[in-house]
Amino acid sequence: MSGKIPNLKKLRNLINDFDTKLTSKNSQSPYKTGEIDEELNSALRTKPKSHHKSYDKELLSKAKLEMELIDKELKNSSSPDDLCISSESDSSKLSTSFHLTKSSAFSQDKSSKPKPSIKQSQLETALETIKTLNATIEDKDKKISILELKLAEKEELAETSLKKLTQNTKIIKNSEKDIVKIKKEYEDQLKNYEKIIIKIEDENNGLKKKVKNLEKDKEGYEEKMIGFKTQIQSYEEVKKQNQELRKKFDESLKLMDNLQQRYENLVESSRAFEEKTRELYKANQALQENILKLLPEN
């Protein structure tokens, strides 16, 4: 009970901060429940019943916009492996390849062979341009197939994003319900804490009164302890005196034992002396009788 009691204001402030943080997170989050519900409802209404994998027009337009942005970024990129190449660059490449093949053909003809006719050179250049055009068409076909694959991937991504949106709406709704429940639980706990704190404060007031009474009793006990200490000191002095008297008494007992033994020895010796005196008295009487017998009678 000697520890500090928690303050009610601090607990309330902590819960208010928790609520404000939750509201700010919900307001700042990109997944707003109202907008998500509207988008999902519109998407479900516009879906045909026969084909389950058909998408909403708005989502397709968004996907097209994203594809256009990707195409623009690919056009702006300078790497040679870019997939989307503009028609102007293709035409410039074709013209450059055409001029290069033309110049190379003329140079080879000049170096190795005599000058051919104009029709023959035109045919050769036409053949070269046809070859280059076929190669560019093959490249374009490859790029178109890659773009079709990318479109399919985009459609799959759109479908997965729709599923994620539905899952996120459910999660957000469930989390909001859980937050309301948690808030109610915290409020109930706060009420219980308030009751407990009131009880603890009452108990502390009672304990303070008891402590004051104990302090008063302590002063009386200290005075009594001083008296007891003086009595103990006097008892110790009496104890020392008793020990000294005990020693003297033991010594006197030893002397009494010695005197008793001497007295007993004297009594025994007096008895022996008395017996000897009686024997001597009897012997003296016998001698006197014998002397009287021996003496002549007058």
Compose a concise summary of this entry.
With 298 residues, the protein is mainly alpha-helical. It has helices spanning 8-28, 33-46, 57-76, 87-112, 118-294. The chain is built from five helices and no strands.
Overview of this protein structure:
- This protein has 298 residues and is an all-alpha fold.
- It has a domain at 28-46 and 55-187.
- The chain is 87% helix and 0% strand.
- The chain is rod-shaped.
- The relative contact order is 0.06.
State mean pLDDT (0 to 100 scale): 70
Determine the strand fraction and express it as a percent band.
under 5%
Please give the count of helices.
5
Q: Helix amount, in percent?
A: over 70%
Poorly predicted runs are 1-8, 28-37, 43-56, 77-114
Indicate the overall shape.
Answer: rod-shaped
Secondary-structure element pattern, one letter each: HHHHH
Largest sheet: none
| Multimeric state | single chain
Cα end-to-end separation? 130 Å
Classify the secondary structure makeup into a structural class.
mainly alpha
Strand segment count = 0
List the helices and strands and how they pair.
Elements: H1 8-28, H2 33-46, H3 57-76, H4 87-112, H5 118-294
Protein name: Transforming acidic coiled-coil-containing protein C-terminal domain-containing protein
Biased composition (Polar residues): 21-31
Coiled coil: 123-276
